[in-house]
Design goal:
Mean pLDDT: 93
Number of strands: 6
Helix content: 40-55%
Radius of gyration: 18 Å
Number of helices: 6
Strand order of the largest sheet: 1-2
Distance between the termini: 50 Å
Low-confidence stretches: none
Shape: globular
Oligomer: single chain
Length: 144
């Protein structure tokens, strides 16, 4: 049985340690995206699915991750499950997944968003249900 151990240092000049012991959630997300991005450039996969690969990241890092996934989508279909507006805004198509309670059951639903609904959804991802004009403006900016 073969065993492979990844060594990692988050900081320049830092000591290498086992990845699973020292990497944060955000670091693991970025490393996983980097590995999948490199593999996808060598192995032509028809579809790549990222399920919350952006966990633990925010701000500029999420913008960079979104750009990498957008680049990957030029050669493969990329499906991304995310809660980050920066990631969601880069997609060509946006589906909203939501739960609905009916009587004594809960159903999970999915709907494809049109361009106007997409602005609303991105704005809500940015600022919650009470959308401000600045959240709407920011959503439009992210989508362009």
């Amino acid at each position: 049985k073969d065993k492979l151990t990844f060594l990692f240092s988050a900081n320049k000049g830092g000591t290498l340690n086992e990845l699973k012991k020292v990497a944060s959630g955000g670091e693991l997300s970025r490393i996983m995206l980097a590995i999948k991005s490199v593999l996808a450039s060598y192995v032509k996969l028809p579809t790549i699915i990222f399920d919350e690969i952006d966990t633990g990241v925010s701000g500029e890092i999420s913008n960079k991750m979104a750009s990498i996934m957008k680049q990957m989508s030029m050669q493969s279909q990329v499906i991304t499950i995310t809660h980050l507006p920066q990631i969601a805004a880069k997609g060509d198509t946006h589906f909203k997944v939501f739960k609905e309670e009916k009587r004594e059951t809960t159903a999970t639903n999915m709907v494809k968003l049109n361009p106007d609904d997409r602005i609303v959804e991105i704005a809500q991802m940015l600022g919650g249900k009470e959308m401000s004009s600045s959240a709407i403006a920011h959503a439009k900016q992210l989508l362009n």
